[in-house]
Write a structure and sequence with these properties.
- This protein is an all-alpha fold.
- Helix content is about 65%, strand content about 0%.
Length: about 180
């Protein structure tokens, strides 16, 4: 998505995301869950819509607390379906709850979400998509690819000449470390 480097800098929403988050490696479970939830909800919509609704998602999904979301019941589902601050799509809401439960299980099997990602790296995009489809809900090729690119597991978040890429390089994102 190197074209992002052309229009995001200076934009009130895209600029901060491009300059400080996109492509930067992350380990924090809440950050990983947030990014997955936002990427899933972005399907069929623009990323700008997601950035505008980000705070609404944060409030609606208890600060992206995996354990709280994993425990959501029918009352929470109805609350989310009625919340204009988020994307009110039953399949996406169900995916968020299910995926939070999956992340809980990844703690037991791998020590956490980040450790699970690390255990499977490096995979090519097709391999990642296959793995995500087996593991999570609502994670097709675009969602999986953008999720992994946004966290530094796949290349392409920034052009090689983008100043942000130069700031990311010393952090040794997984795709860069694998490339040698």
């Amino acid at each position: 998505m190197s074209g992002y480097c052309d229009f995001a800098p200076g934009h009130p929403l895209h600029g901060p995301y491009h300059d400080h988050e996109y492509g930067f490696p992350q380990r924090d479970e809440r950050v990983l869950f947030e990014r997955l939830l936002l990427e899933i909800n972005q399907a069929g919509l623009s990323w700008e819509t997601m950035l505008k609704k980000r705070e609404g998602f944060r409030r609606a999904y208890d600060g992206f607390d995996v354990d709280r979301v994993a425990a959501y019941g029918e009352a929470d589902r109805q609350r989310l379906l009625a919340d204009p601050g988020i994307i009110r799509n039953r399949l996406k809401i169900e995916a968020a709850i299910h995926n939070a439960q999956v992340i809980q299980r990844l703690r037991d099997s791998h020590g956490g979400f980040a450790a699970w990602l690390d255990a499977h790296h490096p995979l090519d995009k097709a391999g990642w998509v296959k793995l995500f489809r087996r593991t999570f809900r609502f994670t097709g090729g675009e969602i999986t690819g953008e999720f992994l690119m946004s966290l530094g597991y796949l290349p392409g978040a920034h052009r090689p000449d983008c100043p942000v890429q130069a700031r990311i390089a010393p952090l040794s994102p997984p795709w860069m470390a694998a490339a040698g």
